[in-house]
Amino acid sequence: MRIVIAEDDPLLREGLALLLRAEALDVVATAPDAAGFLDAVAAHEPDVAIVDVRMPPTHTDEGIRAAVEARRTRPGLAVLVLSAYVEQAFATDLLVHGSARLGYLLKERVGRVQEFLTALHRVAGGGTAIDPEVVAQLLTRRRPDNRLDRLSPRERDVLALMAEGLGNTAIAERLVVTGGAVHKHIRSIFAKLDLQPADGTDRRVAAVLRYLEST
């Protein structure tokens, strides 16, 4: 796994590089800003990019815009975005462009090494990894009359884990239920959120988007 890191904080940038190299992962380049990151992606053709949301010069959304551009020029690039705190617009912007090979984690998750590495490998393998705290905070911001209000408590639990990027088997293990029960809950979620089968529509991604956009 070839990795590029874009982070303006030198301590975090070098700390991430040391951590990943200690895990026998190939960090091919690091960059302190968006321009350097895009140059590194072009030069090294990495499999995964770890990108800070806020970078110089304005410290607003340079990281997100650079990640979108990197995926445009290198289709299939996995991107794990790091943020100091929950930023709803950035989380939804990422998913709007497709959920495969994408992750959004709070920086504090890096200190929980195994959780961070699990998320990194999930994203590199084609999955999605959304920080549980992001999911929890978005849940608390729901508007009245939201279609999510139709869901039962257990269905909300299942949808929250779907938003973290977990598959059915992992959800069943987390909730200590059968895979059949998870499948039944997901079908019910699709029905209650008015997500009907349609060619070209990934109802699982659509459910997560509805979940995030409802805040």
TrEMBL record:
Gene3D superfamilies named in the record: 3.40.50.2300
SUPFAM superfamilies linked: C-terminal effector domain of the bipartite response regulators, CheY-like
InterPro entries in the cross-refs: CheY-like_superfamily, NreC/VraR/RcsB-like_REC, Sig_transdc_resp-reg_C-effctor, Sig_transdc_resp-reg_receiver, Tscrpt_reg_LuxR_C, WalR-like
Presence of the UniProt keyword Electron transport in the record: no
Keywords: DNA-binding, Phosphoprotein, Transcription, Transcription regulation
Ranges where the Response regulatory domain occurs: 2-122
Modified residues (4-aspartylphosphate): D52
Domain HTH luxR-type: 144-215
Classification via PANTHER family: TRANSCRIPTIONAL REGULATORY PROTEIN NARL-RELATED, TWO-COMPONENT RESPONSE REGULATOR
UniProt protein name: Oxygen regulatory protein NreC
Organism: Nonomuraea coxensis DSM 45129
Organism classification: Bacteria, Bacillati, Actinomycetota, Actinomycetes, Streptosporangiales
Gene: nreC10
